[in-house]
Design a protein that fits this description.
By secondary structure, this protein is α/β, with parallel strands linked by helices. The chain contains 13 helices and 15 strands. It has helices at about 60-70, 90-95, 110-115, 140-160, 200-215, 240-250, 270-285, 290, 310-315, 330-350, 360-370, 375-380, 390-409; strands at about 15, 50-55, 75-85, 100-105, 120-125, 165, 180-185, 195, 225-230, 235, 255, 270, 295-300, 320-325, 370-375. Helix 1 (about 60-70) packs across helix 7. The longest helix is centred in the middle third of the chain and has 22 residues, at about 140-160. It has a single domain (about 15-320, about 360-409), classed as Rossmann fold. The structure holds nicotinamide-adenine-dinucleotide and ligand L6FXTLRJ. Nicotinamide-adenine-dinucleotide binds next to helix 1, helix 4 and strand 10. It is a multi-pass membrane protein. Its EC number is 1.1.1.181.
Length: about 400
């Protein structure tokens, strides 16, 4: 089978700045948080021989990947979790049959990365700075997302690790700076991937590095096999932005005000399915290197196509919030003005405090531009089917928001 590339390749331009097998379903409910409980549920009948490293393993997605690996990867012998900030929840994982090694480290430090990678069979690189709110400088975003990824690749080459899965992003493709819609497109849909914001620029550069590294000889002479997963907007247990919207709604007396037309579709995917896709890709990359090496895959599931705000209401609605208005309450030009004002305020206040509201010109453009995917490439290449139905994903997320509510009282 030939390479699938072309259209939404994401090898776009940055115009500014440096820069199938379904196994046991995860067990629900961790202290009411809806996170998964049981560590080390790997099937003991199969040989446990592989060492996996998850960078960013304590982040929103990373934690789900870690728990999913422990539940769904029978070949796992040791799981290394590498993160700048280690979570206390890691302790509970250490009692299971799989050796869990927590490594506090920084991806920008090549020697720390190399030490963590040495001896690992597979690296899942999810660590990154996700910042579209101006909290971090463009230089730092570039350093962590691009140089950090370069360090991971070099560590694989130097230490002989052959399989690398990179968590990329839909933003590698778009929405682009022209705000052109990408309507239910796939990995081959033509689209002008041109970015200006530091975050998508950094993800695009990092993804390119990962894909170009496919086939490089690692220590021992065998080829490195890489691929990149591009989630759309991830939601689910632990999603900070959902939490922010929820608290904003509570502050506004249980209301959120519609700012985006209901007709603008924004792609969303459940975190459990994104984690499952990572586990499956990591496993199948070892058997289907010729087909999967150097490929990109959008992360998808059966979550409905909706606007960003309407989608959030699927969870926030049952938790008592209401979205006011069937149309945006403010005209777009006024929203844009407020977004620009926020940028000015952020700049003025910077010496005193960090002002980083959800609304800025970039987030407004993101939310206001249709970007949805419809693809079956992951199913065709490595048998991916979502592990969680939409109903399950929704229920789990609602339960988690309700627990956030409980803990806030
Ligand atoms: N959240 C989304 O909607 C989304 C969508 C598409 C892609 N992604 C990608 O998924 C990955 C994970 O995103 P997330 O939403 O879980 O973000 P997150 O911030 O929750 O997790 C990122 C993790 O990386 C760690 N990290 C940051 N800098 C590091 C460094 N220098 N060294 C080591 N670890 C470091 C953080 O401590 C954190 O635990 C990112 O690469 C992001 O670009 C996220
Ligand atoms: C104008 C506001 C009125 O309610 C709504 C602002 C919403 C924004 C804060 C979010 C809209 C789209 C989101 C992004 C998208 O889902 C995909 C992303 C890719 C990923 O790699 C990182 C997260 C994000 C950039 C995500 C961030 C939040 C939005 C911009």
């Amino acid at each position: 089978m030939g390479r699938e590339g072309g259209g939404a390749s994401g090898r776009g331009r940055c115009v500014a700045g440096p820069g199938a097998c379904r196994r046991r379903p995860p067990v629900a409910g961790l202290g009411g948080l809806g996170l998964w409980l049981q560590p080390g549920m790997a099937d003991s009948a199969q040989a446990q021989k592989l060492v996996y490293l998850v960078t960013g393993g304590c982040g929103f997605l990373g934690e789900h990947v870690v728990r999913m690996l422990l539940q769904q990867e029978p070949q796992l012998r040791e799981l290394r979790i590498f993160d700048l900030h280690l979570g206390p929840w890691l302790e509970e994982l250490k009692t299971g049959p799989v050796q869990v090694t927590a490594i506090q480290g920084d991806v920008t430090q090549a020697h720390e990365v190399a030490a963590a990678v040495a001896g690992a069979h597979v690296v899942i690189h999810t660590a990154g700075l996700v910042d579209v709110f101006g909290k971090t400088s463009p230089e730092t975003i570039h350093e962590v997302n691009v140089q950090g990824t370069r360090n991971v690749i070099e560590a694989c080459v130097q230490t002989g690790t052959r399989f690398l899965v990179y968590t990329s992003s839909m933003e590698v493709v778009g929405p682009n700076i022209k705000g052109q819609p990408f309507y239910r497109g796939n990995e081959n849909t033509p689209y002008e991937a041109v970015h200006r914001h530091p975050y998508p620029c950094s993800k695009a550069l990092a993804e390119q590095l990962v894909l170009e590294a496919n086939g490089r000889k690692v220590l021992g002479g065998l080829p490195l096999v890489t691929c990149a997963l591009r989630p759309t907007g991830i939601y689910g247990e632990g999603h900070q932005i959902m939490r922010d919207f929820y608290h904003q709604g509570l502050r506004l007396g249980g209301r959120l005000f519609r700012a985006i037309p209901a007709s603008v579709e924004h792609g969303r995917v459940y975190v459990g399915n994104v984690a499952w896709m990572h586990v499956l890709v990591a496993r199948e990359l070892q058997h289907r290197a010729a087909l999967m090496g150097g490929q990109v895959y959008f992360c998808y599931d059966n979550s409905p196509y909706k606007s960003y705000e309407d989608f959030n209401m699927e969870f926030l609605g049952p938790c008592g919030l209401r979205l006011v208005g069937t149309r945006p309450l403010l005209p777009y030009w006024l929203l844009l003005f407020l977004a620009a004002l926020n940028v000015l305020l952020q700049w003025l206040l910077r010496p005193l405090l960090l002002y980083a509201p959800l609304l800025n010109p970039y987030t407004l453009a993101m939310a206001n531009t249709t970007f949805t995917v419809s693809t079956d490439k992951a199913r065709r290449h490595f048998g991916y089917e979502p592990l969680f139905s939409w109903e399950e994903s929704r229920t789990r997320t609602i339960r988690w928001v309700q627990a956030v509510e409980g803990s806030a009282q």
